Model the fold of this input.
Amino acid sequence: MEETISLQELMNVLKKRFMMILAIAIVAITIAGVVSYLILTPIYQASTQILVNQEKVEQQGFNSQDIQTDLQLINTYNVIIKSPAILSIVIEKLDMDITPSQLTEQITVDSAQNSQVINISVTDPEPFKAVDIANTTGQVFQEEIQKLMKVDNVNILSPAEMPENPTPVKPNPKLNMAIGVVVGLMIGVGIAFLLEYLDTTIKTEQDVEELLELPILGLVSPISEKEMPTPAARQRRKKR
Done:
């Protein structure tokens, strides 16, 4: 016999297990909040911008070919910025006890489409350190690119600055807690339906009919304590 579940039955299951589902959601949001605020280390970000332009300026100014050449060089510059040739000098200047490969993981280099501006973003648990790394990386690149590619077409457009009240970019406690609520509700609903599926006890007439695959001919109504005969009434019945 094929089993079908109606929407009303689904709602009944959710109502029946509502407190359990709510408890699991509360536990999930609590865990997410504790992890976000007390366990995960706040990470701060600082960014500096570098402008790539022509080494020599003609009397008529830039032409489209010059700009296209600079745009093609930006991809090369992005790789050079994160190379050991640049980062090893940055580490030496800041007296950092890490390797260039480790520093590479903290640095993100990108540029907007058809833009001659390169963004160097640095993340670090200490906000002032992120600022120092971003600015030093830009300065070292500006100096070393002249030796590496014999060009002088890089200028610091916007150095990184230390804000008065630094705000970490991650973790995001509110987002994590929102995700915790969703995950908790999903787990709670899943457990509710699993418990209902595993519960094979017979509770209603419909359960009996589905189990035996036979129609129900009659029911025995429950008898309340008030309707139960007293011992004296039983004795009178026996005498009769």
User: Anything to note?
Assistant: The longest helix spans residues 173-198. The two ends are 51 Å apart (CA to CA).
